[in-house]
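Why do we care about 3D structure at all? Because function follows from shape, and shape follows, mostly, from sequence. That is the central idea of this module. The next example makes it concrete: a single protein chain, its amino acid sequence, and then its structure expressed as tokens.
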Amino acid sequence: MTDVGLAGVDIVDAHTHPYRLEDLLAKESEGFDTRMMFLGESFHSSSRVHDDLWPVADGFTDSTVFGIALRRWLAAHLDCEPSRDAVTRARDAALRADPVAYTKGLLDAAGVVAILSDEGFPQPPILAEEFASTIGATVHRVTRLEPWILHHRDGSFDDLVAGVEAEATQAAADPNCLAYKSIVAYRTGLDVGDPSSSDAEAGFARWRDDGWAETREHAKPVRDFLIRRALAIAKANDRPFHFHCGGGDPDINLAYAGPASIFPLLVDVQDQPVVLVHSGYPWVREAAYVASVLPNVYLELSELIPWGWGQVEWALEMLVGTVPAAKLLYGSDEAGEPEAFWASALLVRSTLERVLGRFVERDYVSTDEAERLGRLVLGDACRRLHGFGTT
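And the structure:
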């Protein structure tokens, strides 16, 4: 195969979640690999998965390709036997000896130089400065709409709107806050309408009277109205707006979580940059279409990477071969285990080299052009969109 060299290319991780050092150290290393699987992650992030099913999930890790690869790769990194027990013991010893150095060593080994941190989860928010000191790397903020709604909804509808607008404006005053984000796909769906202020206020009254139940009848007009307001503030302050788009943990409103649902909104706001976090996974073909026809729609690759493990190669070939590489942003969706930064970055780098090598062999692009495309996906596209430098 043609050699496309991305080994020395810096990686920017466009979607992560922060964690506190004390929370990391409070967890036993036993089961850390299961916590990194999509199945295991749901126990951490979802309110709908039964805790007593953890042993069932843990029993599947050793027959999950991601779990097997993680164990083999980490054994090589830690210089230990590639058994689950040996890797767990070596990981625990390295982590507890110096957790910051251990994490920074993983990031350095994978070539990850900066991350964008979604401060919406967990709550209360973890400051970028704190997370940077926890992982030993540059951290940029992505601020989220939904905690603002929760914080300001106990007053009147006007209080809610004013509070959300003030939060959004204040966030934009921080040059390290690079983007806004919404997870309305988890609440009332991505099919965001354009309700009037009076319709939203009436929905607010019904929502409050219904005990804040997340129904599409009551909560949806309020959330849709506030998303439109937040999008306007993002545009005024030259910030991209990120939307969770695609599947997620079992809390997701799966019927309205895909690219088809958000497409009408994207047409409405086509003059401002919008990032579809997760590239609509598992509906990545639909997301590729959307990003191909709307100039300001970008795709972020986490969830596909790493949890779609066996689908990453064909998906990257399809995405890079369909969507401008300057619109594709690598991300890991790291959410509590430092090895996620590392394993995801190793996967995307090696997979991109193979995919781009095939493009060279087919005479689609030259080796230099392939490497330029790879640099875009691994970090340059994210830097360009969000307006920051190399560190």
